[in-house]
Specification:
single chain, alpha/beta, Hypothetical protein af1432, 2 domains, five-stranded parallel beta sheet, two-stranded antiparallel ribbon, 14 helices, 8% strand
Length: 334
């Protein structure tokens, strides 16, 4: 958990000290920032150029970066842009330190993704205020990541209750994201598909084992209980805004193209596209995976079944075609 702050003193009060990386080739600036920031309880790392900074970022995962604009080799603008386009580092706040006051230089920093600016000469109280503000923002981001991690762990726990599913969630995340790329979906949609692969059946956490693991057909009452899991999963994930694109996947991955699915009886293109994508890969994985009540089908048999069912109106026929085209291409490549 990221550290809390004493609002009166502005001092870190948690058990974990936050790390700040100072990237500047001027030793006097580095020493000044180290002295100021360590006096407030922060751990300070330093790098003299972009390459050294990247190494430290990968090894130490700082909570905040103070980045000089002008450095030997790669500039601060270039490094900032690289960090902000990398999914692994884009949420680390970056304060750019510059002696340049020109408006165009500030605009370049904003375009590169900088979160804030400090101008030389540095004034301690301004430094502390900007650092404190962005570290609070990073704290909220970390808390969000922690909440997501709990949900993913819970989802994997649900999967572990069924010894027959194996790595079902990981396979769905991989298949769905690959199909999303084939369909030229945007980055956020592909991320949502990966997350949906793990979280789609989260609502089964409330389904009793005697229903979830039943080796024969469910009774009508048992089936009604099972059909509640998409809505329950959606409710669990709804408080996290970062999962808003995943919610339709969770709720609607059991809808059918002909309207015979659940929980809302949606049909055709009223079913959200991402839910239809995950649905196709989910059906395929279920067919080729053994269950207590059925043997696994060979991949070719599963394809035949899905093509027949899609022609009959159960699945999105275009997505089924795209999915198997993708599988055939990957097999030929292997």
């Amino acid at each position: 958990m990221a550290e809390k702050f004493n609002d009166l003193a502005g001092l870190p009060t948690s058990r974990r000290t936050q790390k700040i990386l100072v990237v500047d080739d001027k030793i006097d600036t580095v020493l000044l920032l180290r002295e100021l920031l360590t006096s407030r309880g922060y751990t300070v790392l330093s790098a003299g150029d972009a390459d050294e900074a990247v190494f430290l970022i990968q090894a130490q995962r700082p909570d905040l970066i103070l980045l000089d604009v002008i450095m030997p080799g790669k500039s601060g603008y270039e490094l900032c842009r690289e960090l902000k386009t990398d999914p692994n580092t884009r949420l680390i706040p970056i304060i750019m330190i510059t002696g340049l006051s020109d408006r165009d230089d500030r605009i370049r920093g904003i375009e590169a993704g900088a979160d804030d600016f400090l101008s030389k000469p540095l004034y301690p109280e301004e430094l502390f205020a900007r650092v404190r503000s962005l570290l609070k923002l990073k704290e909220f981001t970390d808390e969000l990541d922690n909440a997501e991690a709990v949900l993913f762990s819970l989802a994997l726990g649900v999967e572990a209750r069924d010894p027959y599913t194996g790595d079902h969630c990981a396979r769905l995340a991989r298949y769905a994201s690959q199909l999303g790329k084939l369909l030229n979906l945007d980055y956020d949609s592909i991320v949502a598909l990966k997350r949906g692969g793990y979280l789609h059946d989260l609502g089964k956490v409330t389904i009793p084992d005697d229903i979830l693991k039943k080796g024969t057909a469910l009774s009508l009452d048992e089936w009604k209980i099972m059909q509640q899991h998409p809505g329950i999963g959606e409710s669990i994930c709804r408080p996290l805004k970062s999962l808003r694109q995943v919610l339709p996947i969770i709720r609607h991955h059991h809808e059918h193209w002909d309207g015979s699915g659940y929980p809302d009886g949606l049909s055709g293109k009223d079913i959200p596209l991402l839910a239809r994508v995950l649905q196709v890969v989910d059906v395929y994985d279920a067919l080729v995976t053994p269950r207590p009540y059925k043997a696994a089908l060979a991949p070719q048999e599963a394809e035949e079944v899905m093509r027949i069912e899609s022609k009959a109106g159960k699945w999105d026929q275009q997505l089924v075609d795209e999915f198997f085209s993708m599988l055939h291409s990957s097999r030929r490549a292997a």
